[in-house]
């Protein structure tokens, strides 16, 4: 057996992901050592409650609540606690005490990434975070390294497993959101506070991380436009299906070019995509990231976006990379943010829309609506009318589903406001963007 150098590995957190990381590290120790060129010795696991039942059978003597002594003297610190504090302080302490760090904490990186990367740069340490976006799918390295010689134009990603699981069951089983959320929590996909998933915060954090890498620009979380899926109901799913679409929570990161130069847009919202689009066939808690690059063309990354053992795969890949670098020495690879592209607000983004209205079923109504759309610079691509109610031959209510050509978001929202106030619209049922066309 090769006599490898011994590296001390500290694990902070043994929940859904951490317990699986510890179990795999212990089970496959020899194999990982052969790949890393170093023996990875798990020296301790910091948790809140050492007596709590874990998802894996782990040696009781490894557990501690005393985090700081565990960090000091470790070569690699794996942070899988989640949240901002104390995770941020522990990562900074680890970096400043000479460790390389591995984290899956998108909430932390999306809000304090520059601080953590700067701290690592100062001391020549490396921060690994493959699991922070899209779980088990390798997407951080492809964007940071493999595509570093290309120009990414657009990323469209399903990057939250919980919401994809929920939307998929709403689509395929006619289930309601609240009923399937509990299953997503039980399966370990959801964040500690599932609001982060259903309101799009988790996807927005991942979008900020992916866009920063893709466009070599620091993307603050506040600049990511975010909408969640709580407004999506069964009627919208049915209408989408009828029109040949499926509803997905999408993270869209886009390079925009106009007369004044280049900028980027980063946004997360539930959108309609054509059922023939590759992203439409992403089911369950799976994630997929569709990347369009100038030279490479279209690339699709697909797989498990959540789940303890799946995410542990990405974390352990980072641990092996950290170990190799620790053995080889040298300065870590810093994040490149020098392009520093301006980030535009959602109002300046152009997409197609599907507007569903309930209107009075009377003469002239369609003409009024067409007039408002035309004045608002919103061009109609498709129009479908169905009668919702008829009262003994009297005018009733009709449902209009209007598909638009590409329109500027600020024009569209002002037009929808004018439609709602027009006197002929009973109810704006939904306004959904159409992506991927
Ligand atoms: P869990 O909530 O399941 O586990 C968190 C762990 O951290 C627990 O073991 C907890 O201890 C420990 N912990 C939390 N706070 C402290 C503290 N102050 N001091 C000591 N220990 C603490 O989280 P997950 O495993 O689901 O997620 C971990 C990270 O991975 C998060 O950043 C998450 O966003 C990310 N991630 C999760 C994925 C998933 O599918 N679950 C997928 C991709 C990324 P105790 O058990 O004693 O309470
Ligand atoms: N809650 C997250 C999800 C975990 O559902 O995608 C993976 O980051």
Commentary on this structure:
The chain has 437 residues and is α/β, with parallel strands linked by helices. The chain has three domains: 5-136 and 309-328, Rossmann fold, CATH 3.40.50.720; 140-304, Dihydrodipicolinate Reductase, domain 2, CATH 3.30.360.10; 347-435, ACT domain (Alpha-Beta Plaits, 2-Layer Sandwich). It contains 14 helices and 17 strands. Strands 7, 8, 9, 10, 11, 12, 13, 14, 15, 16 and 17 form an eleven-stranded mixed sheet that branches. A six-stranded parallel sheet has the order 3-2-1-4-5-6, sandwiched between helices. Strand 11 (286-293) and strand 12 form a beta hairpin. Helix 1 packs across helix 12, helix 2 crosses helix 12 (308-328) and helix 5 packs parallel to helix 10. It binds NADPH dihydro-nicotinamide-adenine-dinucleotide phosphate (NDP) and L-homoserine. NADPH dihydro-nicotinamide-adenine-dinucleotide phosphate is lined by residues 13-18, 46-49, 52, 80-82, 86, 104-106, 131, 135, 188-189, 191-192, 306-308, 311.
Topology of this protein?
Elements: E1 5-12, H1 18-27, H2 29-36, E2 38-46, E3 63-64, H3 67-71, E4 76-79, H4 87-96, E5 100-103, H5 106-123, E6 127-128, H6 140-146, E7 152-158, H7 161-173, H8 177-186, H9 195-198, H10 201-215, E8 225-226, H11 234-242, E9 245-258, E10 261-274, E11 286-293, E12 297-304, H12 308-328, E13 350-360, H13 365-375, E14 380-391, E15 394-404, E16 407-408, H14 409-420, E17 425-435
Parallel strand pairs: 1-2, 1-4, 2-3, 4-5, 5-6, 8-10, 10-17
Antiparallel strand pairs: 7-9, 7-11, 9-10, 11-12, 13-15, 13-16, 13-17, 14-15
Helix pairs in contact: 1-12, 2-12, 4-5, 5-10, 7-8, 13-14
The chain binds NADPH dihydro-nicotinamide-adenine-dinucleotide phosphate (NDP) and L-homoserine.
């Amino acid at each position: 057996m090769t006599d490898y150098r011994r590296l001390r590995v500290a694990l902070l957190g043994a929940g859904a992901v951490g317990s699986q990381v510890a179990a795999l590290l212990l089970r496959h120790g020899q194999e990982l050592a052969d790949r890393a060129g170093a023996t990875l010795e798990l020296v301790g696991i910091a948790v809140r409650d050492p007596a709590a039942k874990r998802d894996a059978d782990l040696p009781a003597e490894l557990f501690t609540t005393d985090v700081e002594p565990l960090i000091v003297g470790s070569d690699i610190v794996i942070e899988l606690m989640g949240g901002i504090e104390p995770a941020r302080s522990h990562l900074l302490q680890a970096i400043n005490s000479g460790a390389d760090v591995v984290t899956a904490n998108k909430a932390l990186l999306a809000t304090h990434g520059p601080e953590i990367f700067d701290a690592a740069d100062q001391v020549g340490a490396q921060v690994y975070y493959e699991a922070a976006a899209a779980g088990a799918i390798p997407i951080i390295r492809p964007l940071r390294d493999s595509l570093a010689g290309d120009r990414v134009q657009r990323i469209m990603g399903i990057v939250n497993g919980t919401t994809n699981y929920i939307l998929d069951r709403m689509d395929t089983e006619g289930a309601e959101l609240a009923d399937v959320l509990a299953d997503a929590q039980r399966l370990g996909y959801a964040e500690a506070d599932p609001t982060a998933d259903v309101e799009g915060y988790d996807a927005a954090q991942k979008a900020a991380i992916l866009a920063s890498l893709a466009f070599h620009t620091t993307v603050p979380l506040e600049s990511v436009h975010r909408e969640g899926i709580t407004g999506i109901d069964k009627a919208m799913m049915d209408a989408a299906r009828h029109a040949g679409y499926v509803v997905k929570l999408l993270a869209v990161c886009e390079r925009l070019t106009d007369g004044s130069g280049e900028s980027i847009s980063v946004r997360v919202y539930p959108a309609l995509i054509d059922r023939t689009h590759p992203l439409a066939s992403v089911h369950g808690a799976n994630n997929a990231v569709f990347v369009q690059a100038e030279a490479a063309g279209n690339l699709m990354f697909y797989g498990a976006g959540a789940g303890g053992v799946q995410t542990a795969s990405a974390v352990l890949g980072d641990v092996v990379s950290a170990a190799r670098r620790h053995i080889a020495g040298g300065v870590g690879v810093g994040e490149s943010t020098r392009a520093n592209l301006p980030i535009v607000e959602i109002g300046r983004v152009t997409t197609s829309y599907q507007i569903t209205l309930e209107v009075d079923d009377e003469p002239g109504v369609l003409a009024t609506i067409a007039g408002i759309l035309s004045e608002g610079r919103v061009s109609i691509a498709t129009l479908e009318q169905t009668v919702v109610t008829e009262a003994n031959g009297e005018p009733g209510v009709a449902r209009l589903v209007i598909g638009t050509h590409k329109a500027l978001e600020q024009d569209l929202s002002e037009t929808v406001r004018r439609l709602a106030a027009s006197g002929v619209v009973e109810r704006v049922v939904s306004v959904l963007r159409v992506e991927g066309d």
